[in-house]
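Data card: per-record layout.
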Amino acid sequence: MNFRPLAAAALALAAAALAVGLAPVATASASPPGDRAEHGAVFVETNDETSNAIIAYSRGRDGHLTETGRFPTGGLGGAVAGPVFDPLASQGALTYDADHQLLYAVNAGSDTLTVFAVHGTNLSQRQIVSSGGHLPVSVGVARDLVYVLNAGGDGAISGFRVNDGTLNPLVGSTRSLGLGNPATPPFLAAPSQVALTPDGRNVIVATKTQGVLDIFPLDRLGRPTPAPVVTAAAPGSVPFALSFDRDANLLVAGAAGVASSYTVHRDGTLTAISTAVPNGQSATCWTVFARGHLYAANAGSATITGYTDHHGKLALREPTGVAAHTDTGPVDLAASGDDKYLYQLATGAGVIDEYRIGQNGSLSLIGTVTGLGIDNGHGTEGIAAT
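The structure for this 386-residue chain is written out next.
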């Protein structure tokens, strides 16, 4: 594999981190007149290494967020080695399960997963379960199945089945990824995300330095095959984030500033639709699909790229590759359940940027939520929305 894109991504992240000290302090925008009644929620994980917690925000009809409470996970946050402002080096640390109205939060420092029942902006803790490995960083869900990705050491996935609002471990579902990393891997060597296909038939893991996608077909009980089907990502793309479009096509963001798309087959094989569509940006590491578009956060450029999606075929929405500018250190994205608003967790600045999604997929900055604390590699990570 060509490691130049990895080095470029690392340098871009480092440069962005240095810029944190030079960037102006963000201020909360004044809310325009409108209905401030609660129309949804956004949740952010503090990833505090002494007492992890979830911050809850209500979403008004106008898309603006108001903090409503904090809920301890009962676990500890954590970090991979040497992060710039991305402590878990992952997507999906905090995952909302709309079908069951549950919220899953990783506790990377205590090797556990916390399950919350969601009631508007209120959370009630249902259980704390073992992640089945070391350093959990990502959670994927589809139908009644939940899988957690552990990044430490060789890396592993472990599965659960949702039953009456709680998780039951799937016996025989843990699979090693054979990564050969130390117990606390460097952030570019750590696996970045686990995702399930919408039909619940495959588990997919994105790696970085390995440059591959590991796909585990699942049996009728939800257990993975003994070994994954391994597909090399676009050369040099450094696969990081996984999303799905309305047709269940797999959309992959690469830290080298590209996006790719695939058809996922039942046997775990992939057929490429769009390969390595470049955006001209740096450290493209987090994505969300909303209103027929794929949005990707570029940590090294402090921008968001918008891609149009036509049955999996991707194209830049703006020729420049820039749909919006963000605050320093974007690390995760979430879209409201009605696809009207996009929220960008910018931990390098300690803020959440609020955007309105236009009917045509355009992004308009409508405000900024402050007060999260600037992340220096040990701080907030994970955002989810209802």
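Known properties of this structure: Residues 4-20 form the longest helix (17 residues). The helical segments are 4-20.

See the next section for split statistics.
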